[in-house]
Amino acid sequence: MKFLFSFLPILTLYLANSCIFQAFSQSKDYWQQRCDYRIEVTLDDTNHILEAFLELDYQNNSPDPLEVIYFHLWPNAFKSTETAFAKQKVENGSVRFHYSLPSTKGNIDGLDFKVEGKKVEFSLDSDDIDIGKITLNEPLQPNQTIKIETPFTVKIPDSYSRLGHVDQSYQITQWYPKPAVYDKEGWHPMPYLDQGEFYSEYGSFDVKITLPENYIVGATGDLQTKEELAFLNEKALETAKIDTFTETQNPFPESASGFKTLHYTQDNIHDFAWFADKRFHVLKNEFTLPNTKRKITAWAMFTNSEANMWKDCPDYLQGAIEHYSAKVGAYPYNQVTAVQSALSAGAGMEYPTITVIGLSGNKYGLENVIVHEVGHNWFYGQLGSNERVHPWMDEGINSYYEQRYFRHHYPDLKLSESLLEGVPDFLMKGIGMEDKKIRDGYEIIYQFLARKRDDQHIGEHSCAFTNSNYGSIAYGKSVLAFDYLEAYLGTDELDRIMQEYYRQYEFKHPQPEDIRRVFEDESKKPLDWFFDDMIGTRKPVDYWLYKCKKEGETIGKDKFDVVTVRNHPRNIQGPFSLTAVKDDEPIHRIWYDGFMGQEEILFPSMNYDKLVLDYDNQSPEYNRRNNTIKREGLFKKSGGMSVHLLPKIEKAHRSQLFLTPILGVNTFDGFMGGLAIYNNVVPARNFSYMFSPMYAFESQKLTGTGEINYNWYTEEYVPFLKRIGFNVQGKTFSYANDRISTEVDGEVTTDVVPLSYYRVAPKVTFEFKQKEAR
Question: Cα–Cα distance between 578 and 572 in angstroms, integer?
Fold first, then answer.
């Protein structure tokens, strides 16, 4: 039974009225700027240059007069090795851009800003040359709109991140001067980063692209050029006739001497991207959304590189659009496109109505990335949160819905069949991963980081995550967190609330406090454990079952088992579930309120074998080895011991001992054989040991090594100290041969006797906490 929260009728009425007033006040006070773009651009594919002109209607809907407007000039991120982008690449271990040739770098130039036809002062930021500022000749008053215009030239860099080219394959993204967001917190100018995405104003785009006429283009928005639409339809018919793509090479044909101009329009978006390649195959699919009857066209554009995997891409696009429309809110646009092109910033990257996908490796990987990136049309596209500051609001929630798509379509899909495809079955079985699913992989990675205190909280800024934590926490742990919330609220209830969030904030800029308000108002449940702790801290979820007293209490005619549950003060006080299991099948489940310390809770007495905390793995548990207790028996908390020859992933309910045959050799002992006896597993435990006794065949002695480790993580007691490690190592081997002479009955014999040493070395290690994780 789920946790229920009841109110007195008068309190319920008060809270309902309060929520109505809150929502009305929020919508009344809310404002956001609007940007309507008209851009004409020409591609020079010989020199890899864009020549363009921008007209922008900037509408000030704020209550403030504006004297300046900040612009993002993100192509300048590729101008030198001193930009924020370049420095972050080096921090993350990549020096490819740092040592790149000047001819392969990029920039934006030729800017000449005018407002209402009059020149204005323009300057670059002293620290970040990809941020600019225009100073208006007179303040822009509230509710006024001005026309800003400028020519600009972009030297397209090689593909070092998102904007770039590989020969004559073009990825034109973050390419035009774009006003920074101005909201209730002020201006949000931000340098371009590889790890860390964007925050932009909504509006409309009217874009005309001129380029050699044999290019195939995928772009944001609706294509208005009828001749080009006919050309794409013809290409789609040609591609559909190909059963198997046998050619994997991708030679570039010569560019046509003639040019064409393509016209795209789209309203209610905050970015515009386009991709051009003369080698693209094209596939097309048209479908109708069940809930709105909107007709949507899905386009797939791809080269020979992984062409056979891309044949089902239109179906993936349709499946993703239908999934997110049903779970979150209706897709509001007329088309969706996926292109396969160069990308040096992750496996895929999203833009309104279009996504670019790099090489995927296998069919599942392709579908996974397409569904994820299409999902960003909701979480970043239609719900325009600040991705740079709150990545969990787009990457995290989107990853959760992406995983729900795969659980629905492939409920039995295993890691070995998807993300770890190609790893031999015997190896997966050998390490205990043969039955693990995608969610299990997320939890193992989280536990691996958390047990070493190397994790970060979900609500961290994107550029503050370590390179590994950005994917493991902002994406992976967010999935675990929203699985937890789904289990607590119920799937239908979570979807209903998310749909209300979508309804209130579609085409707006929601903040963390906004999604929290919607969830708490709609659920009528306290969710501070989720938003304050699960999102806002590194606190783990780690209840454990301490005791179970059979039929320990009677209430009326009902008998209850008394279960003692503990929760460490450093842990989250979130809700938790207990499930009764009989013959390895769940028979009854109850949800309980969270608490700190130790509590006795009541569970109905019935015929069951054991109680399991979080039976369905729905919360991001720090340690599952203390989640099971038997109803009867002497060793109620023991799941027994399993012995293995090779190290395996930790088992939730059993102790593990590893016995691995080992061989060794040295000069004085000769060949040695023995057994390694250890408990080391992944994820790591605080206490570990390994003993490796061996028998030396030449010296005929017992040799070997031994080690005992204990790590005490001290952050909650000594804030500047991360860990104190206690370690004792011991070993014994022969180190020399001595000759001993013995005289018996006048006959002297000399024996070679190996000399042994014994070493015991205790050690204490102090690991200090870093100020910043990066």
Answer: 17
Q: How far apart are CA 692 and CA 704, in angstroms?
A: 5
* 22-49 b/e (C-beta count within 10 Å ≥ 16 → b): eeeeeeeebbbbebbbbbbbebebeebb
| Global pTM value | 0.91
User: Tokens representing 464?
Assistant: 């503050």
- Per-residue pLDDT reduced to its tens digit, 345-392: 888 999 999 999 999 888 899 999 999 999 999 999 999 999 999 999
Treating both helix axes as pointing N-terminal to C-terminal, what angle do 512-523 and 491-505 enclose, rounded to 10 degrees?
A: 130
Query: Is 572 within 8 Å of 529 (Cβ atoms)?
Result: yes
How many other C-beta atoms can be found within 10 angstroms of the C-beta atom of residue 69? Answer: 24
Contact 175, 50 (CB under 8 A): yes
pLDDT at position 641 is: 83
CA distance 362 to 299: 20
Mean pLDDT calculated for residue range 88-104: 96
pLDDT tens digits for range 542-591: 999 999 999 889 998 899 999 999 999 899 999 999 999 999 999 999 99
Distance between CA 348 and CA 339 in Å, rounded?
10
Judge residue 253's burial from the number of C-beta atoms within 10 Å of its C-beta, 0-12 exposed, 13-18 middle, 19 or more buried.
exposed
Each residue of 700-722: b (16+ CB within 10 Å) or e?
Answer: ebebbbbbebebebbeeeeeeeb
Distance CA 119, CA 107 (A): 22
Residue 492 belongs to what H/E stretch? helix 491-505
Beta strands 670-678 and 687-696 are antiparallel
Res. 510 pLDDT band, cuts 50 70 90? very high
Q: Which residues pair with 108 in a beta bridge?
A: 154
- Please state whether beta strands 295-302 and 335-340 pair in parallel, antiparallel, or not at all (unpaired): parallel
Beta-ladder partners of 151: 53
CA end-to-end distance (rounded Å), the chain = 43
Query: Does position 213 have pLDDT exceeding 70, yes or no?
Result: yes
**Rg for the chain, CA atoms, rounded:** 31
Mapped onto helix, strand or coil, the DSSP state of residue 236 is helix
Residue 28 is predicted with a pLDDT of 64
Q: How far apart are CA 43 and CA 170, in angstroms?
A: 10
**Cα 198 from Cα 176, distance rounded (Å):** 14
Determine the Cα–Cα distance for residues 399 and 381; give it in Å rounded to an integer.
Answer: 15
pLDDT in tens, 52-68: 999 999 999 999 999 99
Residues in contact with 38: Cβ distance below 8 Å, sequence separation at least 6, in sequence order: 54, 55, 56, 206, 207
The share of the chain scoring above pLDDT 70, in percent, equals: 96
How many other β-carbons are positioned within 10 Å of the β-carbon of residue 185?
10
Cβ–Cβ under 8 Å, residues 731 and 704: yes
Please, which residues have CB within 8 angstroms of residue 634's CB and are 6 or more apart in sequence? none
Residue-wise burial string across 462-476, b where 16 or more C-beta atoms lie within 10 A, e elsewhere: bbbbbeebbbbbbbb
Percentage of residues in the chain having pLDDT higher than 90: 80
Q: What is the layout of strands, in order, in the sheet containing 610-613?
A: 585-592, 576-582, 610-613, 628-630
- 604-631 burial code (b ≥16 CB/10 A, e <16): ebeebbbbbbbbebbbbbbbbbbbbbbb
- Summarised one tens digit per residue, pLDDT across range 457-472 is 999 999 999 999 999 9
Locate 698 and state its tokens.
């030449």
Report whether the peptide linkage leading into residue 253 is cis, meaning its omega lies within 30 degrees of zero.
no
pLDDT tens digits, residue range 1-22? 222 223 233 223 333 333 333 3
- In sign, the C-alpha dihedral spanning 189, 195, 196, 202 is positive
Provide the 8-state DSSP code for 345: S
